[in-house]
Amino acid sequence: MGSSGEPRSRTGTKKPLGIQLIECLRGGPLSFRSAQALVLVLTFLSYASYHATRKTTSIVKSVLDPKRTHLGMVHWPSNLYLQDLKGAANNTALTTGWAPFNGDGGTALLGEIDLAFLGVYAIGMFFAGHLGDRVDLRILLTIGMVGTGLFTAAFGAGYWLNIHSFYYFLGAQMIAGLFQSTGWPSVVAVVGNWFGKSKRGLIMGIWNAHTSVGNISGSLIAAAMLKYGWSWSFALPGAMIALVGLAVFLFLPVSPEVIGIEDDRHVEDYEKDGTDVPLLRGRSVSRDEAVGFIQAWRIPGVAPFALCLFFCKLVAYTFLYWLPFYLSHTEIGGEYLSDTAAGVLSTLFDVGGVVGGILAGHISDRLDARALTAASFTFSAIPALFFYRIYGSISLTWNAALMVLTGVLVNGPYALITTAVSADLGTHSSLNGNSRALATVTAIIDGTGSIGAAVGPLLTGYISARSWSGVFTMLMASALIAGLLLSRLVVAEISAKMESRRRTDHASDLPVSSLEEP
């Protein structure tokens, strides 16, 4: 704490104005538990708003490119090939669309828009994580949120300004992707500063529901705004994330030091269980040099989990960007859904994602086996994807039930790797106590995953023009590869547990006298 009485962290971070106001009204400093709650709420709302702006594109896709063809009508079993397409001709949601996306290559153009956004997002993630370990995370997060809101709204402004240039929409999405890349490394690093390893999987599994909550709210808002013009589907979420960014700037304490908790003695005053101990407790300055990019890659487990996330996010983001489009272009129970109905129905995938993230975190805590849990979910996702493709068109009930199940199994490992695993590796013992690797490690893992997130939607834009069955084949193959990439870590975890059990059994078989000191 500086001599002026204004707390600063090791990086010179000032206490936010909102925190100073709260403490002035309280007549005393903010308690540790209250600060933890504030951090959870603000980071949850922050990343939920990021995902809400990200989700709008998938809802508007079917308005920009409304044509319905034989997309998705080819199933693997030959007896399911024939579908009645008469419903497409009578669907009132068929509109003229928006140039240049309503032409013959419109679906591919939308895929290229997704690639541009996610490609810049993935590249920016590596730089943002490196930067996040060196600057005030509160400022970085605020800039990212306000910038995201501005360029999300700019995409929608193309409707009001009657813009039909593909490069305008491409540029808006690319800049929005750059600002979005600041979000994940920042929020994970902030949460990692405040919460310890005990029950980390469960806590972060619950906290990671912000992804699905953002997707659901973004879908519902974008779908509701379509009747006023698709521009509002971008403008409203853009305004919302900017407002949340302002709240982050005013109130987010990025570390315990900001509110005056600077060493272990202060933490112990509040410690009731392992969940209350910050991951990154006070360290000596000599250990506090930011970790290099190559050094972070060499941390055991970073590479396999990063590559696994590449394929996990390929699957998850294909659903994120294309599920509403798929639902509105595929006959379900003999009918085609309107764009709005498809957007609302697609939220069930994210409902499953909430359950999957919490379940994966809880199971991994109980088993103390992150790789085994993640691999089990990814392998289980393969039959779930198959059944959703084959039987999802029978009725809305079947579609909804299988969609939720698929969401559980697809988003479970995705949530686990991007939160608890990243936090584990960012505070790995090989770092010798260095507290400034968390944002960099998070950026490497999620940045690599985001490359897969870019590839999946792009390939879907081309493959779906011929057959949605090809898309689902790609997704199942990706889930298989994701699980196989963790095989060595799974074997290591199982071997370690078996060895631990053998030692325990051996110790229990020893006579009592042999355990006593001579």
TrEMBL record:
Q: Which organism is it from?
A: Avena sativa
- Domain of life from the UniProt record: Eukaryota
Protein name stated in the entry: Uncharacterized protein
